[in-house]
Amino acid sequence: MGEKPKELPPALPARPPSKARLPSARRSMPNNFRVENAEGSLECLPSLNKRKEGDLGFKAGHFGVKKTENDQTVESPYGGSLEDCRTRPEKIAKSDCDDNIGYFIKKKLCVWCRLPSGLWELGTIQSTSGDAALVSLSSGNVIKVHRVELLPANPDVLEGVDDLIQLSYLNEPAVLYNLQCRYSQDMIYSKAGPVLIAINPFKDVQIYGKDSIRAYRQKLTDKPHVYAVADAAYDEMMTDDVNQSIIISGESGAGKTETAKVAMQYLAALGSGSCGTEHANAILQTNCILEAFGNAKTSRNQNASRFGKLIEFHFSTAGRICGAFIQTCKLVAQLENGERSYHVFYQLCAGAPSTLKERLNLKRASEYKYLNQSDCLEIDGVDDARKFHILVEALDVVHVCKEDQEHMFSLLAAVLWLGNISFRAIDNEKHVEVLADEAVTIAAMLMGCSSQELMLSLSTPEIHGSKDSIVKRLTLRQAIDARDALAKFIYVSLFDWLVEQINKSLAVGKCRTGRSISILDIHGFESFQKNSFEQMCINYANERLQQHFNRHLFKLEQEECELDGLDWTKVDFQDNQECLNLFEKKPFGLLSMLDEESNFPKANDLTLANKFKQHLNANSCFKEEKGSTFSIRHHAGEVLYDTSGFLKKNRDRLPSVFFQLLSSCRCRLLQLFTSKELKQFQKPENDSYQIDALDPSKSSAGIDFKGQLFKLMHQLESSKPHFISCIRPNSKQLPGMYEVNLVLQQLRCCGVLEVVRISRSGYPTRMTHQEFAGRYGFLLLEDDLPQDPLSLSIAILKRFSVLPEMYQIGYTKVFLRTGQIASLEDKRKKVLRGIIGVQKYFRGHRARCHFDQLKEGVPKIPSNADGLGENTGRKAGSCETLDERQNLKKSHPENGKAKRKAGRKMSEVKVLPIKICHQIWQSFKGGCFRLRQLWCGRRRKMLNYRSNCNNLKQDGQNMNQR
Ligand SMILES: Nc1ncnc2c1ncn2[C@@H]1O[C@H](COP(=O)(O)OP(=O)(O)OP(=O)(O)O)[C@@H](O)[C@H]1O
């Protein structure tokens, strides 16, 4: 029962229930502001949805091909916005579009031609005959192709544009070429409307660092960059008070982790200052700790993340970092699968000081079975020993004390020694016992137990029946599995504990404002020759992330337009819901069935595969394969999985005998891990930790993974997302290499073309009529302004001559095209500046007058502040208030002078009420200060007048207290 919410996907943000929500404001619209005007004028908008088929020469982006519904907006050079019109080359004026191919031939314009190899090459059309065209390619060859193989190329002036939105012809080769062109010049970042595309350079590019950060912060550049994304998130958080998230997606090796680090670097620089600097530094240091423990080398990436993470940066009201929180998504096993294991093992073996090595009985990495199974012990260009020192420094920064560090390293060494424990057959049934060698002795010593206890636990686990415990020997396979399960439990618990320590050290504390920016970096999509349970989990997480991307950039965007009654044509996109159903459906989804089989004693990996095949064939994303294999058609490509090991990995249960062993160990951390694990699974009414008492559904790796993933997604749902799509340009991890097909496949996966299409025809800025009228309404000077927000919004748009094709009025919101809000903001700023200027002069004038009055009214300033309170109240009857004196001065100026003179006597001051004395004293002191400034000619400092006065006021109060 309690599990139920866990099974639900993240909730959709609240949406209005129906379309029929015409606000009353619309009815009460004044005569002079016609909605029809705004909407009607959209008729003349070169809007994609309104354009009749054939209006444009390029149909579906090809010459002379019937446009499909999906492609209605596809390859049009006319995005519908004026900006597009501005960048639209002269050659594609509407009159020329009637016979495009003829036009392209006549003007000798370039086209993209798809070669039989599937690659695209530039060329010019020489002639046509029927559906065939003769094309002269840039390579010098002339080939005959079908018209459908031709796509219009963009003019040179659009080569390498920053934002794909600016392309006149939006088609795959145009996008690919544009990105390639930029990539070859080390411009690794480009924009696809609201999405930043980051192509992994696989080398150092000189676009980071303090100067660059300053340039983006001061808005001196608007080139696409991660800094620009982080800057926008920061600004939006500060101005709108809405939490933000930066969501980084891409395949394994595409550069997500590096991109996340760049974004973190920017936020850290922005949020530094006062105590923020310490926090910022500590947050940055967490990268090397988490990478050491959570990353490993795979064939795709030398530094592949084996876990997902969401880092929340918390900010104070002043915009300083006041803490952070890291959430992780399950670490995938990398101990016994033959790949290079987690970096930290190699770093420890290479970099531990000799005394530590001695204490841990450490040997070289090559001597440990968990490390020497793969061919790779070292990574080119990576100095593990140096990394170890950096790791220790980072642990110090996040306040992991030396004692805990020693415990951590002991447990890491224990894991390595556990892997070296071997077994000997003792009977014909291949039952085994543990070989009593140095591995078991040292492992036991590091864990803080006796080797006898460890040996016993490793070969004779108890199986708890309903009444009696049966003791039996394990077979070799079972013993190895038990040993690996123990090692994995220790490592995973250590990782979780470390994240906990980091979170404690970065804790936000009391200054929590609720303002945060989260950065999501999860393990990227993986497809190897052999894919197992880990890959399935990772790829499932990527499907979920893709769904989030789709929801925000396609579904919600379009849904909002529809609900608000906008004139809108849907852009189709590749929805991955079917694939998610394949994983999440109950009872016949991959995860549910996997769980069911895991709880069935007689099930094995083959029966699992058969079960999948029996129930999932109807899902179009599932493909049946031979034996224990099956394929899934992921959004990022088809992956072949082998169910071998699925059940064992999913069960993820530590045999009960190990709980007994671990809780009796002297190592404090091991006791802690065990008690936590027991607490998690214990039923409240049951004090024992017998395996029967464990809720099996809670202890499955698949369900845990799903739960953690949903938690992350829920968190993301409550923030404004900023997307970064990372692209892996080649499979060799080399700089300067751009594999067109690989890039194209990734661009397709992340729906870049569709995002650009939506952005071109869309209205990225949306504000409710209330917000819009509230923000810009004061710019209108007219007396008879409409009162309702909708009419006021229209009045504003009209007053500032926003072209009708640049906005749409919805039932509840104003929708504006790119660039429109900036010009309105500009006007708002100018007017505000003017208002502030007037206020400044007025306030200055008033302060001067006040000061003059006070100056004239103060008879004498005591040289000794103590004198102020002296004898207060004496001669109270003769006391004159300040006002009285001022009035007197006004009516009899000469009298005032006389008073002033007289006032120089100390006795007169004393009779003033103490409050007024202070007021005068403060003002006079402030005034003197100001006069001195004037005399010195330092006019600029005058602007600090108010703050100085405050300081003086404080001085006055202090004096009073004294
Ligand atoms: N901006 C960059 N500048 C220089 N090198 C980069 C950049 N981005 C990525 N790289 C290189 O690419 C490698 C892989 O990047 P990264 O580890 O960030 O990929 P990933 O997408 O996080 O992969 P995974 O999903 O497997 O963790 C890095 O180790 C680094 O060498």
UniProtKB/TrEMBL annotation:
Binding residues for ATP: G250, E251, S252, G253, A254, G255, K256, T257
Annotated Myosin motor domain residues: 159-829
UniProt-listed Pfam families: Myosin_head, SH3_VIII-1_N
Nucleotide-binding as UniProt keyword: yes
GO molecular function ontology, one term from the record: actin filament binding
Keywords for the protein's UniProt record, in alphabetical order: Actin-binding, ATP-binding, Calmodulin-binding, Motor protein, Myosin, Nucleotide-binding
Residue span of region Actin-binding: 709-731
GO BP term, example: actin filament organization
Domain annotation Myosin N-terminal SH3-like: ranges: 106-155
Chain intervals for the UniProt region annotation (Disordered): 1-33
Coiled coil residues, start to end: none
InterPro entries to which the protein is assigned, alphabetical: Kinesin_motor_dom_sf, MYO1-3_N_SH3, Myosin_head_motor_dom-like, MYSc_Myo8, P-loop_NTPase, SH3_Myosin
A single cellular component GO annotation: myosin complex
Family that this chain belongs to: Belongs to the TRAFAC class myosin-kinesin ATPase superfamily. Myosin family.
PANTHER family, per the entry: DILUTE CLASS UNCONVENTIONAL MYOSIN, ISOFORM C, MYOSIN
UniProt name for this protein: Myosin-2
